[in-house]
Design goal:
The protein is of the alpha+beta class. It has a single domain, classed as Dihydrodipicolinate Reductase, domain 2. The protein contains four helices and eight strands, in the order H-E-H-E-E-E-E-E-E-E-H-H. The N and C termini lie far apart (51 Å). 22% of the residues are buried.
């Protein structure tokens, strides 16, 4: 929320990494477990642009056949790009989000819940031997913590059940990310079927 409020224009490029160690208890694809959250964030931050193209690739656990790693790229109608990576085969938990505009780079650590803003102000060559210097202003804004994310999500759900939140508006807000995730999952299934056919051949 803080990062979104700091944006002076919709991002040109959104880069996310949502990686976790293995979670054997989870038996669904990483696409609808982890990647869906960053697709949702990218759509919300893209300034209302529709997704124009989706490309993806994934890795399936040979034992379970379940996708545990998935990367996808989204191109929005206005030209913005999103490069998103989700994994349940990492050695550490990572939740990072980078928002690039023509004037700023906003670096969000969703685990530590902090934000850093970078603005490049000058670039030059110095000295007789070519030496490059880049000057960047770094801001660390105060992040007002509204609460623990899962507790807030539960409170939002309860608000929907009680009729305090418009269900049509809520449904509309999640359709675009779910459409994109479905394309990623369908491409993943098609790739798995091709691998199976190649193996049989």
């Amino acid at each position: 929320m803080t990062a979104g409020n700091l944006l002076t224009e919709p991002p040109i490029h959104v880069v996310s990494m949502r990686h976790s160690p293995p979670a054997p208890r989870i038996t669904t694809s990483v696409v609808f477990d982890l990647l869906i959250h960053d697709i949702d964030l990218a759509v919300r931050l893209a300034g209302g642009d529709q997704i124009a193209a989706v490309t993806c690739s994934s890795w399936r656990d040979p034992g379970s056949g379940i996708s545990e790693v998935a990367d996808c790229s989204l191109r929005f109608g206005g030209g913005a790009l999103a490069t998103l990576s989700a994994s349940r085969r990492s050695q550490r938990k990572i939740r990072s989000l980078l928002l690039s505009t023509s004037e700023q780079l906003i670096d969000v650590d969703l685990l530590r819940q902090d934000v850093t803003v970078y603005r490049n102000v000058a670039q030059s060559q110095i000295g007789e031997a070519p030496s490059y210097r880049a000057e960047t202003v770094v801001d660390i804004p105060f992040v007002r913590h509204a609460g623990e994310p899962l507790a807030l999500q539960l409170a939002h759900f309860v608000g929907l059940v009680r009729g305090e939140i418009d269900p049509d508006e809520e449904r509309e807000s999640v359709l675009e990310p779910h459409r994109a995730a479905s394309i990623v999952a369908e491409d993943d299934r098609a790739a798995a079927d091709t691998d199976l056919l190649d193996g049989l051949a």
